[in-house]
Design a protein that fits this description.
The chain is mainly alpha-helical. The protein has one domain (about 30-110). Helix content is about 50%, strand content about 5%. The chain has 4 helices and 2 strands. The chain has helices spanning about 45-50, 55-60, 60-80, 90-110; strands at about 30, 35. It has a two-stranded antiparallel ribbon with strand order 1-2. The protein is elongated and about 90 Å long. About 0% of the residues are buried.
Length: about 110
C-alpha cells in the first residue's frame, strides 16, 4: 500500500537548504579575520599554487621559444654577423595594415 500524502502544517519542522559548517575544521587567521575553511599555507606552497593558476604555466614553452629567438636575433645584430634591418617604409605599411585589421576586428564584435 502507498502512504498517504502529508502536507506541511505550521507545526512541521523546516529543513534548511544549506548545511551547517563542520565544526571539526581547524580555524586559521588571515588579514581579514578568521577563515574556517582554508588552512594557512607556507610561502613557497602558496607561490607554487599561484604559478600553477596562471596562464604562464600553460604557455611557458612559447615564452621560452620566443625568448631564445629574440636572444639569437639580438646577438646576431650586436656582433655584426648579419645586417638585420627593415626599411622604414615597410614598417609604416605593416603598422598601417595591422592597425586597420585591429580596428575592423574591434568593430565587427567578433
Amino acid at each position: 500500500m502507498s502512504t498517504p500524502l502529508q502536507y506541511a502544517t505550521p507545526g512541521t519542522p523546516r529543513h534548511t537548504i544549506f548545511q551547517e559548517p563542520d565544526m571539526h575544521i581547524k580555524e586559521s587567521t588571515t588579514q581579514s579575520g578568521t577563515n574556517p575553511i582554508v588552512a594557512p599555507a607556507g610561502f613557497f606552497e602558496g607561490l607554487g599554487k599561484a604559478i600553477l593558476a596562471t596562464a604562464v604555466f600553460r604557455c611557458w614553452h612559447f615564452i621560452l621559444f620566443f625568448t631564445i629567438e629574440a636572444t639569437i636575433v639580438t646577438y646576431v645584430h650586436q656582433m655584426g654577423i648579419r645586417k638585420l634591418s627593415i626599411q622604414s617604409v615597410l614598417m609604416n605599411v605593416l603598422g598601417t595594415v595591422l592597425g586597420q585589421k585591429t580596428i575592423i576586428y574591434g568593430v565587427s564584435g567578433a
